[in-house]
Design brief:
The complex is a heterodimer of chains A (about 220) and B (about 325). By secondary structure, chain A is mainly α. Chain A has one domain: RNA polymerase sigma factor, region 2, helix turn helix motif (Rna Polymerase Sigma Factor, Chain: A, Orthogonal Bundle), CATH 1.10.1740. Chain A has eight helices and no strands. The two termini of chain A are about 25 Å apart. Chain B is built from ten helices and two strands; from the N terminus they run ααααααααααββ.
Chain lengths: ~220, ~325
C-alpha cells in the first residue's frame, strides 16, 4: 500500500466511510522528523525508508506533471538522486521535508521541460501502468479513464497542474502544498478549485453526452 | 460566494480524507459541490495509480546502488589526507603515548613489568572505530522505536496509518534478520533490543484492542516476528551461546592496519563536495536544491490564474 496520507486517501468507492486515519498527525510528523534526521547523518536504512515512503508519491506527482509514464519514471529516479546529493544540506527551517522534496521534484520537472521542450513527450500513458481494479474489463475502463484525465490535466495551466500534482498526486495537505509552492493556503485552495472546475469542463467536452460521472 | 465554494470544497475533501464524512453527507450539506466533488473523486482514483512493479523494483535497486556508491565514496574520501600531513599528528601522538607510558611507570614506582606499557597504549590508542554492522543495527533500532512510538500515539488516539504498520513490519523483520550479524554489539545493546521487541509485542497487542480497524493478521505477524526476535536475542545473550561476541575491547581490533592514532576522524561533510560521478547524465542537478528558497521565475509563462505573482520558491 502506498503512502497516501492527505487527499489521496479520500473515500474511494461510493463515498463510503473508510478507516479513520489522521490527515497529518503530530506523531507522524515526529516519526518522519526522526527518520529525516537519521537520513541526514547518513543512516542508510533511514534513507531507504524515506525512499520507500516517498517513491510512489513522487511518481504520481511526476505522472500528473509530465503526463506520460516514461518521463514520470525517469524524473522520479532523478529526484531521488538529487535528494541524495542534497540531503545533508537539508535543514528544518519551518519547511517540512515533504515540501523540500517536492520543490526538488518541481525543479526536476522544470529542467526536464527546458531540455525536452515545452510540455514533454506525448505518449500512451496507461499501457504500462498497473491500475487498482478487479477484473480485465475494469482495468480497460480504468486505463481509458486514466488517459482521459491525464490528457485533460496536461491542458491545465502550469500553476494548476502543479497544485493538482501536489494535492492529488503527491497527497500533500493544503498547508504542505502551500509550503512547497511558497504560497498561502488560501491561494492553494483557489488554484485547486479553478483546476477542478477546468478539468471538469475538459472532461465533459471529451464526452458530449455528459457522461463524465460514470468514468 | 466563489470564495466560499473553494473553502467548502476543501472542507469536504479534508472531511472525506479523515473519514469524518461521506460524499453523500457532504453533498447533503453543500449540494452545489456535486460536480466538483465527483471530479475530485475521479482525480483521486486516477492518481492512485502505482508504478509498475518491475520498474519500481529496478528503480529501487538503482537507487540503493547509488546510495552504496556514495557511501563508498565517503569512506574512501575520508583517509584521502596526504600522507605527509599525518606526520605532525603522528609525532604528537607518539609523544603523548610515550608520556603516558613514562607517567604510568613513574606511578608504579618505576618497576612496571613488561605488561603495563602495552596496557597503557591500548587505553590511549583509540581503537573504537565502530563497525558498520553495529551502526546499521543501531539505525534499525532507532527506526523501529520511531515506528513503535507512532503506533503507540496513534493507538491512543484511535487512528493508526496503515503504512506505519507496514513499515513496522518491515523494520522488525529487518532487525531480526540483522541479529545474525551482531559482531561488536555490546550485550547491553542486545538486551535493549530484546526489551524493544517485548515492548513491541505489548504495544501491538494493545493497539489491536484499541483500534479494531487495524488489520489483525498484520499485527499478529509482527508480534510473531518480534517474538522470534526476542527469542533470538535471549539465545544470543545466554552464556551457552557460542556466537556471543566477546566483550573485551581490544580482542577484536578494527581493521585499520596502521597503529597511528586516528584522533581526528575528519567527519566533516565537506568531503561530500567531491564532484559526483554517477553514471546517469541526469543526475547532476543544475539547480542545486537547498532549503533556503530563492525567488526564481516560474518557467512557463502560462500562469495568470493565480492571485499571487508567479515567483516560486526553488530549493
Amino acid at each position: 500500500m502506498g503512502y497516501d496520507g492527505g487527499v489521496a486517501s479520500l473515500a474511494a468507492e461510493g463515498g463510503e466511510r473508510r478507516r479513520c486515519y489522521p490527515l497529518y498527525p503530530d506523531s507522524e510528523a515526529q516519526g518522519e522528523r526522526l527518520l529525516v534526521d537519521a537520513a541526514r547523518v547518513g543512516d542508510q536504512g533511514a534513507i531507504a525508508e524515506l525512499y520507500n515512503r516517498y517513491f510512489p508519491r513522487v511518481y504520481r506527482y511526476m505522472l500528473v506533471r509530465t503526463g506520460n509514464v516514461g518521463d514520470a519514471e525517469d524524473l522520479t529516479e532523478e529526484v531521488f538522486i538529487r535528494v541524495l546529493d542534497a540531503l545533508d544540506r537539508f535543514e528544518w527551517r519551518q519547511v517540512p521535508f515533504s515540501a523540500w522534496l517536492f520543490r526538488i521534484a518541481h525543479n526536476a520537472v522544470v529542467s526536464h521541460q527546458r531540455r525536452d521542450g515545452a510540455r514533454g513527450r506525448l505518449s500512451s500513458l496507461s499501457s504500462s501502468l498497473p491500475v487498482n481494479t478487479q477484473g480485465p474489463e475494469e482495468a480497460v475502463e480504468a486505463r481509458l479513464a486514466l488517459d482521459e484525465v491525464m490528457e485533460a490535466t496536461r491542458n491545465l495551466p502550469e500553476a494548476q497542474r502543479r497544485v493538482i500534482g501536489l494535492r492529488f498526486g503527491a497527497g500533500l495537505s493544503v498547508a504542505e502544498t502551500a509550503r512547497a509552492l511558497g504560497k498561502s493556503g488560501g491561494n492553494v485552495k483557489v488554484i485547486q478549485h479553478k483546476a477542478i472546475v477546468k478539468l471538469r469542463e475538459l472532461l465533459v467536452e471529451k464526452r458530449p453526452d455528459g457522461d463524465e460521472e460514470k468514468a | 460566494m466563489k470564495r466560499r465554494l473553494e473553502e467548502t470544497l476543501e472542507e469536504c475533501l479534508a472531511a472525506l480524507a479523515r473519514g469524518q464524512s461521506t460524499v453523500s453527507e457532504c453533498l447533503a450539506l453543500y449540494p452545489e459541490l456535486e460536480t466538483l466533488l465527483h471530479t475530485a473523486r475521479r482525480l483521486q482514483k486516477v492518481y492512485a495509480a502505482n508504478p509498475s512493479p518491475l520498474y519500481a523494483q529496478a528503480a529501487r535497486e538503482r537507487f540503493l546502488a547509488a546510495l552504496a556508491r556514495r557511501r563508498q565514496r565517503r569512506l574512501v574520501a575520508r583517509p584521502a589526507r596526504p600522507s605527509w600531513r599525518w606526520v605532525p599528528a603522528a609525532v604528537g601522538s607518539a609523544a603523548l603515548v610515550a608520556f603516558a607510558v613514562w607517567a604510568s611507570m613513574l606511578a608504579l614506582g618505576g618497576g612496571g613489568g613488561s605488561q603495563e606499557p602495552s596496557m597503557v597504549v591500548s587505553k590511549v590508542t583509540p581503537t573504537s572505530t565502530p563497525e558498520p554492522v553495529v551502526s546499521d543495527i543501531q539505525g534499525q533500532v532507532e527506526r523501529l522505536k520511531a515506528n513503535l512510538e507512532e503506533v503507540r500515539t496513534g493507538a491512543a488516539s484511535g487512528a493508526v496509518e496503515p503504512d506505519v504498520i507496514q513499515q513496522l513490519k518491515e523494520n522488525t523483520a529487518a532487525l531480526v534478520a540483522s541479529l545474525d550479524q551482531t559482531q561488536g554489539l555490546e550485550p547491553e545493546a542486545m538486551a535493549q533490543i530484546g526489551e524493544l521487541f517485548a515492548d513491541q509485542e505489548k504495544v501491538l497487542s494493545e493497539a489491536k484492542e484499541k483500534v479494531p480497524l487495524l488489520p489483525a493478521e498484520d499485527l499478529d505477524e509482527i508480534i510473531r516476528i518480534a517474538g522470534a526476535g526476542r527469542a533470538k536475542v535471549e539465545e544470543l545473550l545466554s552464556p551457552t551461546a557460542t556466537a556471543t561476541p566477546s566483550a573485551t575491547p581490544t580482542a577484536t581490533p578494527s581493521a585499520t592496519p596502521s597503529a597511528t592514532p586516528t584522533a581526528s576522524p575528519e567527519e566533516s561533510p565537506t568531503s561530500t563536495a567531491t564532484p559526483t560521478a554517477t553514471p546517469s547524465a541526469t543526475v547532476t542537478p543544475e539547480v542545486t536544491p537547498t532549503e533556503t528558497p530563492q525567488s526564481t521565475p516560474s518557467p512557463p509563462p502560462e500562469g495568470g490564474d493565480e492571485p499571487s505573482p508567479s515567483a516560486t520558491a526553488a530549493p
